[in-house]
Amino acid sequence: MSQDGVNQGRRTLLVGATAAVGAVGAGFLAVPYVKSWNPSEKAKAAGAPTSVDVSKIEPGAMIVAEWRGKPVYVARRTPETLGYLEGLNGQLKDPNNSNKEQQPDYADNLHRSRKPELAVLLGVCTHLGCAPTYHPEVKPEPFDANWKGGWYCPCHGSRFDFSGRVFNGSPAADNLVVPPYSFETTEVIVIGIDEENA
Questions:
Q1: What is the pTM of this model?
Q2: Are residues 88 and 2 located together in one domain of the fold?
């Protein structure tokens, strides 16, 4: 015992025990707090790559996938509609893809895709974010008497060809966005991952 009647051994034990309990308690509080910094499972799923089986898409048909909470249009173009693409240049705002942020380098071509027959585009109008509707038939439409196929935005009348390039006279200023994608196999594409940045 010390001079003032305090048991120093007991005091050291109590201080040590209190510090240990406090550290354990702080750990129990810190773990949920630190875990809250991680994205939720829903957020992880929303940003995760999406696999799409393209083998079942008939020529002229389109399917809609979802990536990062946005629709992705995957369409199989016919030889007929592919043949119209080059002849449309004079009717388009950006026929040569001058806005390089609208597509990855591998889609900086006439077809804006890895394979000419397959279009992969975000289904979000570049005007105000509406979802353009698919009009694959080459026939006069109420919005264009000389329609050659592609997408039409019913919200404000923007028109896009089969490469997602915007027509003159449309409110949209930019072409539809080509998301990053790659071929996992000859029949499956993965939207959200491209080979160049994998």
A1: 0.74
A2: no
